[in-house]
TrEMBL record:
Annotated ranges, domain FAD dependent oxidoreductase: 6-354
GO molecular function, one term: D-amino-acid oxidase activity
Highest taxon of the lineage: Eukaryota
Annotated FAD binding sites: 201
GO biological process: D-amino acid catabolic process
Family indicated by similarity: Belongs to the DAMOX/DASOX family.
Record protein name field: FAD dependent oxidoreductase domain-containing protein
UniProt: D-dopa binding residues: 248, 338
Organism: Aspergillus chevalieri (Eurotium chevalieri)
Entry keyword set: FAD, Flavoprotein, Oxidoreductase
A GO CC term assigned to this protein in UniProt: cytoplasm
Pfam families attached to this UniProt entry: DAO (PF01266)
Cofactor: FAD
Length: 365
């Protein structure tokens, strides 16, 4: 059987998960080529900045859609990692979603649409989903739900994915591509031949030559990482501070700190933290979660760093498709927006299935 050679562009959660699943199939030799690798912090590289958690955001993920099935598959994998593999930096965390009726129609409420529902499609996937009784609600809120979720320490999880890829023979190299066909150059594969390219470039799919998908736009998310203890994950349907601003708190595993967010600023490429937005983020978080500071002000937050990431939002949801560009077969897996981690295994498996359609290694064993 002839070996099939694949280059995966991108080393975010999409690229690494796709490379890992593909590398487990005998007959493939995988190279991950990327400008940024785990350990880097750059505005183009969204994965390190993510919370990251499982709480379905984009409303395109509804019952019966491929996106819902991708999320279900991912839940199964993440549940196993949380239970049996603490070295991944994935842990269970109770999540509470609080909702204001007045937020309906705002940017944040649309972003959180499925999450805010009292009857979401994922209620039968996550453990202990329930609506909270009225006497449990803060006077400012009209409804709330709770369930068991995950939170992922990306500083541990991304290197873990790399380590698993290395165990399966994946090769990593740094590369900057002006055009997707550059990744098909024989110089990027030890065999001297590339049979297929997997495009997991995230937000840069909007600029990569040969792709240049203008339906992919950044959703600028700003966060504050602190050392204070929150105890659980909290999300709110909106804020009074701006249409594109959000309020959430989540605790990363293994001492990874507490993420305070945030913002959802569509079309904004700004790379530097906005100090005024940071203050609003901290004030909202302390008000929603007083245990962060013991009921005191934001000056009692112990800040690790401020961060900005660009979620790769595609108008029609994640793009998982195959095509031929020039003389090379290409499979795309990008545009998951804020759902990159919670749909990662489902999306990666869908991309791997397309690679198999094109190259068919598994079917020739």
């Amino acid at each position: 059987m002839e070996q099939k050679n694949v280059v995966v562009i991108g080393a975010g959660v999409a690229g690494l998960t796709t490379a890992l699943l593909l590398s487990k199939i005998p007959g493939y030799k995988i190279v991950v080529a990327a400008k940024h690798m785990p350990g880097d912090y750059d505005i183009e590289y969204a994965s390190p900045w993510a919370g990251a958690n499982y709480s379905r955001l984009q409303s395109v993920s509804i019952r019966g859609t491929p996106a819902a099935e991708w999320d279900k598959l991912t839940w199964t994998v993440l549940e196993d990692l949380a239970r049996n593999h603490p070295d991944t930096g994935v842990h269970f965390q109770e999540c509470e979603i609080q909702s204001h009726a007045k937020d309906v129609g705002t940017t944040t409420a649309k972003w959180f649409a499925e999450l805010l529902s009292t009857n979401p499609w994922f209620k039968d996937v996550v453990p202990s989903f329930r609506s909270l009784p009225q006497d449990r609600l803060h006077p400012d809120f009209d409804s709330a739900t709770a369930f068991t979720s995950f939170c992922i320490n990306t500083a541990i999880y991304l290197p873990w994915l790399v380590s698993q890829c290395l165990r399966h023979g994946v090769i990593f190299c740094r590369a900057v591509f002006a055009h997707i066909l550059d990744a098909a150059s024989p110089s990027f594969h030890p065999s001297g031949r590339v049979d297929l390219v997997v495009n997991c470039t995230g937000i840069m799919a909007s600029k990569l030559g040969g792709v240049e998908n203008k339906t992919v736009v950044p959703a600028r998310g700003q966060i504050v990482l602190v050392r204070n203890d929150a105890g659980k994950m909290l999300d709110v349907s909106g804020t009074d501070d701006g249409d594109g601003e959000a309020c959430y708190v989540m605790t990363r595993a293994a001492g990874g700190g507490i993420i305070l967010g945030g913002s959802y600023q569509l079309g904004n490429w700004g790379s530097q933290p906005d100090p005024n937005l940071a203050i609003r983020i901290m004030k909202r978080a302390v008000k929603m979660c007083p245990q962060l500071t013991g009921g005191r002000g934001i000056e009692h937050l112990d800040i690790i760093r401020h961060g900005v990431g660009l979620q790769p939002v595609r108008t029609k949801g994640v793009k998982i498709e195959k095509e031929r560009i020039g003389n090379i077969a290409v499979v795309h897996n990008y545009g998951a927006g804020g759902a990159g981690y919670q749909s990662s295994y489902g999306c990666a498996q869908a991309a791997v299935d397309l690679v198999e359609e094109v190259l068919g290694v598994r079917h020739k064993l």
